[in-house]
């Protein structure tokens, strides 16, 4: 039987694995260079490929929205520094996609020729490719804990609206101590922590907490306005 490599994968709740790497913005120490910030570490399979180009242009266009959310973007592929630089220059100087031109990528793009970082984060998925990182996205909080992980295959570009929604959602969970229902957006109802006793369950169903709406004793929500949610986003 052919031997297969087993790569470790950090999980939700783990501390983000540390690494030092050369990037298009100089050497970085991850995650310690970004103390007190949210971090999105994302991998792409290869420079000079169409899906990746469309993704980088989208992240480049949205960079200020992520900055406003106190979030540092860090990209990664297993290509070398000169390839990264040439690709980012091509994107800025030549690519006109969706009417977007002159898109400048200012966040660091990690050089990972040895696949050390990709292996550390489980971004190499042998079923998809042994030599390229898949489209992984790690959401890392200001305490450097991994909070959400997404994986997409090589052939499908990511949904950047969803990436931003996840970041906004995680910050809202932390800011208000709530959970968020399916497809939640700022201004939608939020889920309050479950009743911790039979007494509280009964009270809730009898309407004792007037700001709650209970669909049943275990499923109670309250309203937090869009303005209130947004006023607390990106705060340290
Ligand atoms: C792309 O980004 O277009 C791509 C990258 C690797 C394999 C297939 C497509």
Automatic annotation (TrEMBL):
It comes from Barnesiella viscericola DSM 18177. It is found in: Cytoplasm. PANTHER family: PEROXIREDOXIN 4, THIOREDOXIN PEROXIDASE. Belongs to the peroxiredoxin family. AhpC/Prx1 subfamily. Keywords: Antioxidant, Cytoplasm, Disulfide bond, Oxidoreductase, Peroxidase, Redox-active center. The active site is at 52 (cysteine sulfenic acid (-soh) intermediate), 52 (cysteine sulfenic acid (-soh) intermediate). It catalyses: a hydroperoxide + [thioredoxin]-dithiol = an alcohol + [thioredoxin]-disulfide + H2O. Transmembrane segments: none annotated. Its EC number is 1.11.1.24. It comes from the Bacteria. Thiol-specific peroxidase that catalyzes the reduction of hydrogen peroxide and organic hydroperoxides to water and alcohols, respectively. Plays a role in cell protection against oxidative stress by detoxifying peroxides. Residues 10-172 form the Thioredoxin domain. This is Peroxiredoxin. Disulfide bonds join 214-220.
């Amino acid at each position: 039987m052919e031997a297969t490599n087993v790569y470790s994968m950090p999980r939700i709740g783990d501390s983000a694995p540390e690494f030092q790497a050369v990037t298009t913005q100089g050497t970085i120490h991850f995650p310690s260079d970004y103390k007190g910030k949210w971090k999105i570490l994302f991998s792409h399979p290869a420079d000079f490929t169409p899906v990746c180009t469309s993704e980088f242009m989208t992240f480049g266009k949205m960079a200020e929205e992520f900055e406003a959310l106190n979030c540092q973007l860090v990209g990664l592929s297993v290509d070398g520094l000169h390839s990264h630089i040439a690709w980012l220059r091509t994107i800025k100087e030549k690519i006109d996609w969706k009417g977007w031109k002159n898109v400048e990528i200012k966040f660091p793009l990690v050089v990972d020729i040895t696949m050390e970082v990709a292996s550390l984060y489980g971004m190499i998925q042998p079923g998809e490719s042994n030599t390229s990182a898949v489209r992984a996205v790690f959401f890392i909080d200001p305490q450097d804990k991994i909070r959400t992980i997404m994986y997409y295959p090589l052939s499908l570009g990511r949904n950047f609206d969803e990436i931003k929604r996840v970041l906004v959602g995680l910050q809202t969970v932390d800011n208000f101590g709530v959970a968020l229902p399916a497809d939640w957006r700022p201004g939608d109802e939020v889920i309050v922590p479950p009743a911790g006793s039979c007494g509280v369950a009964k009270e809730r169903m009898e309407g004792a907490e007037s700001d709650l709406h209970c669909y049943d004793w275990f499923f109670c929500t309250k309203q937090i306005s869009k303005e209130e949610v947004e006023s607390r986003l990106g705060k340290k």
